[in-house]
Amino acid sequence: MSRRLTPTILRFDSLPSTNTEAARQAALGAPEGLCVVAREQTAGRGRRERPWVSPKDAGLYLSVVLRPALGARDWPLITLAAALAARDALLEACGLEADIKWPNDLLAGGRKLCGILAETAEGARGAAVVVGVGVNLTRGSLPPELLDTATSVEEQTGRAPGAEALLEALTRALARRYGALHARGGAAETLRAWEAHSTYARGRRVRVALAGETFEGVTRGLEADGALRVETSTGQVRVVRAGDVTAVRRVKGDE
Fold this sequence. Notes:
Elements: E1 8-12, H1 18-27, E2 34-38, E3 59-66, H2 77-94, E4 99-101, E5 105-108, E6 111-121, E7 128-136, H3 153-157, H4 163-182, H5 186-196, E8 202-209, E9 214-222, E10 228-231, E11 237-240, E12 244-250
Parallel strand pairs: 1-2
Antiparallel strand pairs: 2-3, 3-7, 4-5, 5-6, 6-7, 8-9, 8-12, 9-10, 10-11
Helix pairs in contact: 2-4, 2-5, 4-5
């Protein structure tokens, strides 16, 4: 089964959070494909309620309402598909090739360029998924305390990108990757594509921070539901479905 996503843009000058507004719209019955875009967010957030700094006209801040016709096990793959779409769009519109870090960050030069946050919303029309994408476009998008860990398209390419061109490329890419996820064999293809475009998928030594512990190991690919497989020094393969993953060092020749 394939599924065609037709984006409709709803623009705001300023919002506390595009995800919050998109979730509100979804609860009121907004159709699939509604995209909420804001020039700034005053209370932008990422995973685990971490703040996402969102100065006016310094980034692309977008959230889209999705109503997937997928089994519950495949819903986590929407985040992977969104990361692939953001990577596609950055390459098309900005000529920038980004790396994908599990589960939902895009990196350039080893620093965070883009974050993705997927949340569920309930309403009269049933459950929806709201996918938020935030891209740092200009150097002004980053406060001094984040300069060591985050970057922008402008810093990586040497030029300020066109926000509208990136928005158009992103909505096209989201439609393409979301449609591919719904096609026959789409889950397996999404997993394969994610692994192909992420240096974190296999053979990467990482540190995993969970709610109650931290451990290190080498990544061994993804589970069918998008969870990350990490092999510890004892040979045990642990499956990570929630947590923070950071690179320790690359393991040469360890594939």
